[in-house]
Amino acid sequence: MIAHLLRRLLISLLLLAAMSFLTFWLMHATPGNFFDSLKLNPQISAQTIADYEKLYHLKDPLVVQYGHWLLNVCRGEFGYSFYYNVPAGHIIASRLWNTFILSLTSLLLTWGLAIPLGIWAALRHGRMADGVLSFLSFAAFSAPPFFLAMLLLYAVSQWGILPLGGMHSAGYDRMPFVDKLIDVARHLVIPAVVLSLASIASLQRLMRGNMLAQLRQQYILAARAKGLPETEVIYRHALRNAFNPMVTLLGYEFASLLSGAALVEIVCSWPGLGMLMLTAVRSKDVYVVMASMLMGGVLLLLGNLLADFLLVWVDPRIRYGAKK
Amino acid sequence: MHITLEAFGRHKAALACFWVLVALYAAAAFAPVLAPYHFADEERGYSYCPPTPVEFLDNGRLAAPFVYGRQLTFDENHRRVYLIDKTKKYPLRFLGGGRLFTVEEPGRLYILGADSRGRDLFSRLLYGARISLSIGLLGVLISFGLGLLIGGIAGYYGGVADAFLMRTCEMFMLVPGFYLMLALRSAVPDNFNSVQVYLMVVVILSLIGWASLARVIRGMALSLRERDYVSAAKLLGLPDMVIIVRHILPHTIAYSLVAIMLTIPGYILGEAGLSLLGLGIQDPVPSWGNLLSESMGIVHIPFAPWILLPGLFIFVTVVCFNVVGDALRDALDPMMKEI
After folding, report:
1. pLDDT tens for residues A228-280?
2. Which CATH number is B205's domain given?
3. Which of residues 261 through 280 in chain B touch A, CB cutoff 8 A?
4. Residues A72 and A104 in one domain
5. Is A117 on the interface with B (CB under 8 A)?
6. What per-residue string of b and e applies to A173-187 under the rule 16 or more CB within 10 Å gives b?
7. pTM as predicted
8. Domain termination site, one of B54, B83, B118
9. Same domain, yes or no, for B114 and B126?
């Protein structure tokens, strides 16, 4: 199994490198790249430009430039941010962590709510509660996340119970540790809820469908016939089998979560990777754009890998790479 | 097909949503006629003017439709307040200057309120629909063309071509969609005109969307190529491309149709997201995304809640596409309906 996963990881990394080359090429090939604007900036001396050109091998062919960039990335150097005037790696690290916190919270929120809701709806199949939940989840699934974020921010601004955007309150640095945690958690509520809502809706539907399919199986009839209590039939037998296909979705969910997180971060001004990438794109800060994209890919890769492991853990029947 | 249409017709909600979509697309097509103003027609004196109701009663007597004038004043907090000036009446003018209805100058008709520059939101929503709704269709058509062709080729030939094409697909799916979108956007020069920007958004969205479809079509083609009629076509000496396009791909049409319906919302949201951030369609050309960017800072929402309307339009469109797509799937695949 380990060999199989390693092989997949290797292929993915190679593909990620190919993808980064594609963007690298696109960014340098199109007119009006960032060095042109640097050259036009009267505050930057010709010497600095020459230094940059030497440092990033800008006179060399594109493939060589890319090679140097990739080598540096492997050493953990992501190039320089011309917008923030610090090495790109410095900004990326903290932003990556913030995005990770947001995604993880949403993931936990999603699964913690969607699975019980799905089971609950399946057990009330065909009744009012099921219908209402179906309707609500359809609406939630279709709501544009950025619009939802605006509505929530607006509602909160009227009530004044939660902070509006950002990640820290003023004076965060002087707070004791516990207060710091509470402060971040309070800022986290809106983006996490917005981000989770659509996934909760779709996962809930899937869980409900799986559960209904399992409850119609013969083994459930057998379990009931031999007089098992209903809770045992549902939670011991039906649930386990219904939950299995959900795990394969975990990686996929993670992808949409990361992608959705970027836009929600920006609307809620959560200082994450998506927000960083936006400012970088706006200011043509190439190395930060490249690094953010790469990190987005790496996060996704880790999510998929985690899903693969979980699948084996949940379902012992699955063997990767074993011959039939 | 007939049975499918009948099954679809029984789904009342889907039918209603279908007609809502038809109405939206028709409104977009006839925007220059339906809108009282051009999208860039601004009147700075009417910044965030609230909706002006059309009056039919003049002193309790039925009259030709007109609107009252507006008087801008400021309250004690220096907030804008538009008082209704009942001494000034501006009658509606029908079919003047190629527009269905507008109002006599210097009166202004704001059916859904005005934006920060005093432009009519209703007109801008109509013009914006042209961009937001067409980008979804165009993007889906391009990426489905790509996805069908590449998936078909990969599945039909198998082997090295399959491996190469599928790795390419995975490459595009490896980076979260929004990050990829931003990265592609950053490669585009800033000095594009509005047509170029429009095409750029279409291309970016299609580049992101084709991969997942190609993978599914490839799986279908993989099994379809084993069918007898494909062998027969080969024996007849038909070229490979003809077999793929005329004999394999038509069998994926049911799936593709449903997938198209269910992916269009993604494209509409993608455009809205890009334009919302100022990276897509640029002001003064309206799209639902950049119209919504007025509410980004939320400070103006309490005084001018109508600036949230573009979001509502996006929401309704997405809901309709999802409902229609779902019903279409049920109609095409009666077995699925059980669950």
Report:
1. 898 888 888 888 888 888 877 777 777 778 878 888 888 888 898 888 888 88
2. 1.10.3720.10
3. 265, 269, 272-273, 276-279
4. no
5. no
6. eeeeeeeeeebeeeb
7. 0.88
8. B118
9. no
